Amino acid sequence: MFRMLEVTQSSPLGFSEAVREAVDELLRAGEKVHFFVVQEQRGAVRDGAVKEFQVVLKVAVEGQSG
Amino acid sequence: MFRMLEVTQSSPLGFSEAVREAVDELLRAGEKVHFFVVQEQRGAVRDGAVKEFQVVLKVAVEGQSG
Amino acid sequence: MFRMLEVTQSSPLGFSEAVREAVDELLRAGEKVHFFVVQEQRGAVRDGAVKEFQVVLKVAVEGQSG
Amino acid sequence: MFRMLEVTQSSPLGFSEAVREAVDELLRAGEKVHFFVVQEQRGAVRDGAVKEFQVVLKVAVEGQSG
Amino acid sequence: MFRMLEVTQSSPLGFSEAVREAVDELLRAGEKVHFFVVQEQRGAVRDGAVKEFQVVLKVAVEGQSG
Amino acid sequence: MFRMLEVTQSSPLGFSEAVREAVDELLRAGEKVHFFVVQEQRGAVRDGAVKEFQVVLKVAVEGQSG
Amino acid sequence: MFRMLEVTQSSPLGFSEAVREAVDELLRAGEKVHFFVVQEQRGAVRDGAVKEFQVVLKVAVEGQSG
Amino acid sequence: MFRMLEVTQSSPLGFSEAVREAVDELLRAGEKVHFFVVQEQRGAVRDGAVKEFQVVLKVAVEGQSG
Amino acid sequence: MFRMLEVTQSSPLGFSEAVREAVDELLRAGEKVHFFVVQEQRGAVRDGAVKEFQVVLKVAVEGQSG
Amino acid sequence: MFRMLEVTQSSPLGFSEAVREAVDELLRAGEKVHFFVVQEQRGAVRDGAVKEFQVVLKVAVEGQSG
Amino acid sequence: MFRMLEVTQSSPLGFSEAVREAVDELLRAGEKVHFFVVQEQRGAVRDGAVKEFQVVLKVAVEGQSG
Amino acid sequence: MFRMLEVTQSSPLGFSEAVREAVDELLRAGEKVHFFVVQEQRGAVRDGAVKEFQVVLKVAVEGQSG
Question: What is the reported pLDDT for G64?
């Protein structure tokens, strides 16, 4: 059984980079991540530029605790 | 990174009140809540009246544990 | 078996009140209402103010006749 | 012909109140508002309480300028 | 308040069996499960046959920890 | 013209069985059923087991009365 | 209160004509029809030509009986 | 860059005609229209007949003013 | 078994005509077409008029080759 | 690269069986099937019983021809 | 109150770059942009290569004029 | 008429790169590709890193064979 976690993460560089950072942070926290699905792509604009590319991800991790 | 928790809560008073109670219960449990999105609004009818206004919420909380 | 009726109702006061009025009218008509799901929330503006908060509801009633 | 404007507005009181404020602000700006449809309901939490009930509305106004 | 967990589970037998196994595993882990909603039905094919009927479920469990 | 009725039905055995029971009950009530579309699959858990597989169906019946 | 009926109707001529026939048949049956929303557009092909343009409509009629 | 305007228009004749009238009115207002996408098809019934075929369109126009 | 092909076709006359042309072209290519479902309705504007009514269709054809 | 084929198949026994038959028929036709996703579940009623459980599947097969 | 503008923009480089260009063009036009949501990602192929990565964005700008 | 093919492709670099590879592979296979629409963005994680950025694309190609 996988648990599907839903997380949001942002990167100043782009959507693919935000995905990588979300997965990295879950891996560092000890989650065994198998796959992910992008749910939403948003972003924040400040000081005349796109400052954050944000992704909302569903992430499949092993185990039913979570 | 935010974790998006999904919860359901109900109130006898209305949908806005059910939202407030869901957030309050998460705050009392120690979650650092930032924002929420309403996913669904339902309700239960008993004894000839609307007894529960129910909301299903996605709630953004700090941290990847959860 | 439940039949899911779809109805629209409006209230000058707010969405939760429109839900209550829809359920009340079905109960007065003799339906045995168990639960409801909000499908849509709309409204009408006239004479410089919101005059109607409208809800479209699916309402579960007992029995297969409708 | 109606133009459908999409706006977001918030209220500390509830979703129905946020709808009223969005419509009022458009009316004060001179728009001839006929009806609206709720697209999304969200909110912000700060200092241990729901501070903003936010609605995203599509609002039908007269005319093709906008 | 219910927490809505999202899990995926598979069975070689069929979709209804995959649902039962997902619920059983959550019960064995101590979750107090009340109801579930099927989100998605998928499957894997290997060696010339359907080897896995997979379901993605939202499962309502008691409590806000999760 | 077909009328599309929406009903919910449950079975302890599985989703396909719940579909059969919904159709059977409509046929016994005299409806001339032609086809159906599954809208939603849910279920209830009690006493440590899945007690109900529930389906929400749209069912096409002959005639405009309902 | 309006009841939202869901019906399917077909015409050999086109989608707009199928809508007209659905509404006409409901009016002849005594329903007080106010508005409709197209849910789906399909069709059947036989003998080398489109024989049926089919529409699935939600139709708002007065009253809570159905 | 295109701006996507959302408009509603109606015609007594049919959905394709309502689309043409919406585009014509935008062109007469000086918009440089490139393409459109139908979002919704509805209609109004009065005096025993379909009086309005209504379309909700997204219309792509040149420029970022709107 | 049916294969569901997805095609786009356009007509200067209207949506129903674009559907007919799509089906006719598939029939001329030897496909055994049974039914279709409209997925999307779009269009192109050039030289001050709607030049193309476009439909995206799913078309059910016999056989698993495609 | 996978091609996603969309097919419909039916079985008198249930939805899981219809899935198996769709996959089997594609395998017999020489497709290298990897996974599938259920898109829709429908059915046909004749002679007072459910005669067909129908599934619409997206099926991932190897290669870009198809 | 925010107005949600919907715009399309393209870039030869990728989706994240198309987002940046859309926001930049709105900022140069004097809009006070706060955030955006990706609605759709498409693209055009010409001369044997992807020539345009296109994004459809909803962009939140200050004020009710638009 | 265009045929809409649905394909999945992956890249270790990012979503835009996966799109490019999908289109390139179709072009090498002789398809005349005109445009594409992103349907889904997923990915696989192995050995502590995102190994595949996956896109599901609808791709419009000339002709009705497919």
Answer: 61
User: pLDDT tens digits for E13-66?
Assistant: 999 999 999 999 999 999 999 999 999 999 999 999 999 999 999 999 998 654
Taking contacts as CB-CB distances below 8 angstroms, the residues of chain I near H58 are none
Exposure string of C11-39, with b = 16+ CB inside 10 Å and e = fewer, is beebbbbbbbbbbbebbeeebebebbbbe
Long-range contacts of L16-20 (CB under 8 A, 24+ apart): L16/A16, L16/K13, L16/K14, L16/K15, L16/K16, L16/K53, L17/K14, L17/L53, L18/L53, L18/L54, L18/L55, L19/K43, L19/K50, L19/K53, L19/L55, L19/L57, L20/K49, L20/K50
Structural element, H or E, at residue K28: helix K15-28
Contact G34 H16 (CB under 8 A): no
Can you list the residues of chain A whose pLDDT is less than 70?
Answer: 64-66
What is the count of residue pairs from A and B with beta carbons less than 8 Å apart?
27
pLDDT tens column, A22-35:
999 999 999 999 99
- How confident is the model at residue J63, as a pLDDT? 82
Q: How close does chain D come to K64, measured CA to CA in Å?
A: 7
Q: Which chain F residues are Cβ-neighbours of E36 within 8 angstroms? A: 42-43, 45
CB pairs under 8 A between D and K: 28
Name the residue among E6, B45, I29 with its Cα closest to residue A4. E6
Cβ of I1 within 8 Å of Cβ of J25? The answer is yes
Residue with tokens 């806000």, as numbered in its chain: E64
CA distance J50 to F23: 7
Residues in F whose CB is inside 8 Å of some CB of E read: 13-16, 40-45, 48-50, 53
Q: Looking at D1-66, which runs of residues are DSSP E strands? A: 2-11, 33-46, 49-62
Q: Exposed e or buried b for every residue in F38-55, given b needs 16+ CB within 10 A?
A: beebbbebeeeebeebbb
Q: The CATH number of D2-62 is which of 3.30.1660.10, 1.10.645.10, 3.40.50.1220, 3.30.2130.10?
A: 3.30.1660.10
DSSP assignment letter at L22: H
**pLDDT of res. D23:** 97
The strand pairing partners of J9, in sequence order, are J55
Question: What ranges do the domains of chain B cover?
Answer: 2-62
Query: Over the Cα atoms of chain J, what is R_g?
Result: 13
| Distance (Å, whole) CA E8 – CA G61 | 42
H8: closest chain D residue by CA? D2
pLDDT < 50 positions in chain F: 66
- Contact between G29 and F65 (Cβ < 8 Å): yes
Cβ of L6 within 8 Å of Cβ of J4? The answer is: yes
Strand residue runs (E) in chain K = 2-11, 33-46, 49-62
With CB atoms and an 8 Å threshold, state whether B6 touches E58.
Answer: yes
Residues L2-42 pLDDT 10s:
999 999 999 999 999 999 999 999 999 999 999 999 999 99
Burial H32-59 (b: 16+ CB within 10 A, else e): ebebbbbeebbbbbeeeebeebbbbbbb
Q: Indicate the residue of L6, L60, L64 with minimum beta-carbon distance to I26.
A: L64
H→D interface, C-beta within 8 Å: 5-9, 21-22, 25-26, 29, 31, 56, 66
Taking the C-alpha atoms of residue C13 and residue C30, their distance in angstroms, rounded to an integer, is 25
Q: Which helix (H) or strand (E) holds I65?
A: none
E45 min Cα distance to partner chain B (Å): 32
Enumerate the residues of chain J whose CB falls inside 8 A of the CB of residue F24. 49
Interatomic CA distance for residues L24 and J64, integer angstroms: 11
- Alpha carbons within 13 angstroms on the beta-carbon side of residue C10 total 12
> What are the structure tokens assigned to C54, written together?
């409208």
Q: How far is CA J25 from the centre of its chain?
A: 9
DSSP-assigned letter for residue I47: T
